[in-house]
Structure formats: structure tokens, C-alpha cells
Amino acid sequence: MQREQRIEISQAGLQLAIQEIKDDMFDTPACDYTVAKLLSHCGRFNEAEQLIDTMLLRWGSSPDVVALVEKGYANIDAMSVPIATPSKSAALA
């Protein structure tokens, strides 16, 4: 399985991407999940977690929302694991 990498994006670019997502998906639980996933990919884990935290309050606890919340937390956990970098000894070998 290929590990997804975090991406770097400017604040303005991130806001533009979030607005595009909201324009395309409207105001839905799936939209919140997608924005949280984007934030995770950009290394903004606190913002992503805050958005996921509010989903149950905002959308209720239907099975679909609960599944998206669980998926969102799993995504944050997977993305927040530090990306391994080659050690100096490996680079010298």
C-alpha cells in the first residue's frame, strides 16, 4: 500500500481549495469530512480534528455521519504519523 504524503500549500491556496469543495459539495457531512481530509493532507491536524469533532453536534449521530467521523479520525491518525526520513548512516552506505 502506498503511503500518502502531506502536501504544502499556501494559506490562500488552502482557503481557495476549501471554498471550491464547499461550492461543489454544498453544506453536508461529506463536505466537512472532505475539508478535514484536505486539512490533514496539509498537516493541519488540529483544524481537521476540530472540524471532525463538531460533525456529530452539527449533523447528528446517523450511521452515515458516525462512519464519516470515524473515517476522519482514522485519516488524521494515519497522516499525523511522522514521515520516516533516511538516517545519516543509511545515506552514507
TrEMBL record:
<protein>
    <recommendedName>
        <fullName>Pentatricopeptide repeat protein</fullName>
    </recommendedName>
</protein>
